[in-house]
Amino acid sequence: MNHVHSEVLEQLGLGILIIDAGLIVRYANPFIADNSSSRPLEGKSLFDLFPELPQDWLRKRVASVLMLDNTTYTNWHQRPRLFNFPSSRPVTGSARLMYQSCSLFKVTTEAAEELVCITVYDSTPTAVTQQKLQSSLKRLDRERAHQAELNRKLEATQSQLVQSEKLAGVGQLAAGVAHEINNPVCFIKSNVECLRDYIGKMEQLIERYGQLLDRHLPESEAEARRQLVQSLDIDFIRAELPEIMEETEEGIERIEGIVGSLKDFARVDSGQWQYADLNEGVRSTLKVVHHELKYVVDAVEQDLAELPPVFCLPAQLNQVFMNLLVNAAHAIERHGHVKVTSRCLPEQGRVVLTFADNGCGIEHDKLDRIFDPFFTTKEVGKGTGLGLSVSYGIIQTHAGHISVDSAPGQGSCFRIELPIEGPAAVRHTS
Amino acid sequence: MSSLYEREVLRRDALQEVLNISMGQAADTLACLIDERVHLSIPRLHDVEASRLEAFGSSLIRKPCGMLTRQSFGGFFRGEVLACFERGSKPVLLAPGLGFPVAAVERNPSELILELTNLLASACLKGVAEQLACALRFGPPSVLATASTVTDFLGRQSLIWHKALFLEISFSVDSLSLVIDLLICVPEQESRALWQGVDRMLGQEDV
Predict the structure, then answer these.
(1) A166 — pLDDT class (breaks 50, 70, 90)
(2) Which of A20, A419, B120, B133 is most enclosed, with most CB atoms within 10 A?
(3) Candidate from A13, A90, A96 with C-beta closest to B190
(4) Domains of chain A, residue spans
(5) Do the chains contact at A92 and B82, CB–CB below 8 Å?
(6) Chain B residues with CB inside 8 Å of A14's CB?
(7) Are B50 and B95 within 8 A, CB to CB?
(8) Would you state the CATH architecture of domain A271-430?
(9) Which CATH code for domain A2-122?
């Protein structure tokens, strides 16, 4: 059987290498010999034949195997190879060297000499398959993460859309209400004007009657009339009437102003891209948010320079202005100051608007998150965390840029830059 | 001493002759094994450049597309055998002759296909090794692709060789209309030993 054993070793698709305690080769089967340039291998130092072997490591392993009579393993996962044998796939593979899984164990000769057998298993096919699998898994993981990110963005966009739609809905509602109010206000105004005319005429008549009565009534009757005039406070009423009419007309004018601002703000009649006066947008928005500002803001300074008409969606930009102004009001506790400026940068083809307040400001670590959906620094119930993200989206739609400069306790200044000729001009330029 | 060119021609002629004889022997062996009359084409030698696989593809007699298998060989010289089982061909027809249950092969033909790869590689290279008086050993065969041409497959890999010697052989079984295409591939860095073997056979080892 010795011959058969020897044949088995020769034919085996596994490297068999036997060394002694001094790491001198005693036997190497053809699997090993084929990968060495030196012949014969027997009697030579293992490290001379294979200088790539990790000497310290291997000496320790051989010593421990001889001492413990155990088996030590190496796996291609942790240690791709012990020997720098060429790959068993020289044509179809992409690795130059063979992946190996090895084992070291003790064998004893008939003369009781202790030797160490090293087996070398070619793990290249397994390694190649596993590496392909790993790379596929990594790709799948990357794709899954990308998918999750897309889903997150989709959800955020959907929320922004809902909020945007809601704001647009509020705008439409406001415009509808404004329209409905406008009709009665028109006939009230007309009636008040008639009333003022009629009252004027009645006043003339009463004045004339008074003169006639004073001249022709007997003294007792004249006294009775004076007492009646006095008891009815007619002189006061006659003096007060013009003032009441004036105040009524002023009130009607204010209603007309608010209704006009609401209509301007919502721009229901102009939901399409068009050239618009942004200063007018700022002014009408300021009127709409007046009720939010008036309790905490002492003064709203408008430093609005002459602007060319800007190609935009005016109603959407008004929403942005409103968000910034309401945020400014929320940032101010009391006696605050808000300043709105507008400037034209003709050489850059852009306009710049700033909305500054001297409110509480934004902490530095939150600055880069304020345009994220659902991020809010306001107390629960006061903010949705969507105002600035919606504003950001609207400015992006306009190929513009929105940024903030803020310091805690000193206030915030939001800066909006917009291309005069709209996003198409920006795309064309870029 | 002959000129380098004459020597090269002589070497290639000798290798061609070695291959012709080997294929004759291989055909006999395979016929015995599968119990069918088989035919192995005269091998054609191709000098292939990895950067010009298209040119190699157009120089092939047949350009089959189907299941691709491979098997490593080593020893005196190293390389790989590639086999293409053209789509539509029915290696299952060889199942009874090779002792494979037909039903099992119809469910999963890959074991039979790998065994055929092994048989063809061993049969074709056995004669080469004998004539060059050297020993060759084989690794286990494996599937490379389920539907591809050799050039498409190689074109998708980051190959580690620049030039290689490819030997093109077709194996067919007359009665079964079955053709299997074989490529015995030896990268340039490994072909030195092959040519040494040829030189030794020609008695020109010292040249």
Answers:
(1) low
(2) B120
(3) A90
(4) 2-122, 156-266, 271-430
(5) yes
(6) none
(7) no
(8) 2-Layer Sandwich (3.30)
(9) 3.30.450.20
